[in-house]
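Before we proceed, please read the two lines closing this message. Let me know whether the structure tokens fit the sequence:

…
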Amino acid sequence: MRNKLNVFTYKQYRNKQFIIQLISNIFLLFCTIFAIFCVVFSFQYESAPVDGFSMQPTLNTEYDNQHVVYIHKNSDYTYGDIIVVHKSSTENGNKYIIKRVIGLPGDKISYRFDTTDQNYYLYRNKERLNEDYLLSQQDVEYSYDHFSTLATKGPSSERINFSSIDGILTYTVPNNKVFVLGDNRKVSLDSSSNGSYSMDKVLGKVEYIEDSSLPYVFFIAKHFFTLKIFA
């Protein structure tokens, strides 16, 4: 009887050890996969919360909430894409802005007033853009005012890109530059006031937007990623 009991106890012990070893191996495998994912992610993507409201209603829709964006670094982008651009370097680190792509090298950007609804509209290569992402079509007038001021009082490096085509003030995007605007034209400081940005300064394209009201998302972005992005 004692021998049978010893055999049974030994089998239980072996089974318990097997289960513990299996769980340890699974956990180790999970940690390894997670580590590889983090390394690959850090090379391909950047993540950070967005401060500011110039990209409303797309980003930071509520004034008491932030969005977290995931940027595919050095990725291709085209019209309508949201990109992150390195604007300047300060004592507190690099400053990045997030805007929407409107014009690429060679494109001709202009604004025209529509007497039907009394609003300004944005044109690219003489074609009106369907900007259904705007916070307000009426606010395009603010962007046009900045645009006009840039043409007359901006730096000479930007004034030379303006011309009059068919009597309409038109901006030609220079080589290796990108023309970007915010979706909230009333408050956005963008290419309408600062001119085009060098493509060399583009960090990448936003591929995913997360609501930072999810606590774990905001914690990860805020504490493990040092990028500062301003809308």
User: Anything to note?
Assistant: Residues 47-230 form a domain with the Umud Fragment, subunit A fold (CATH 2.10.109.10). Confidence is low (pLDDT under 50) at residues 215-219. The two ends are 78 Å apart (CA to CA). Residues 127 and 175 are 21 Å apart (CA to CA).
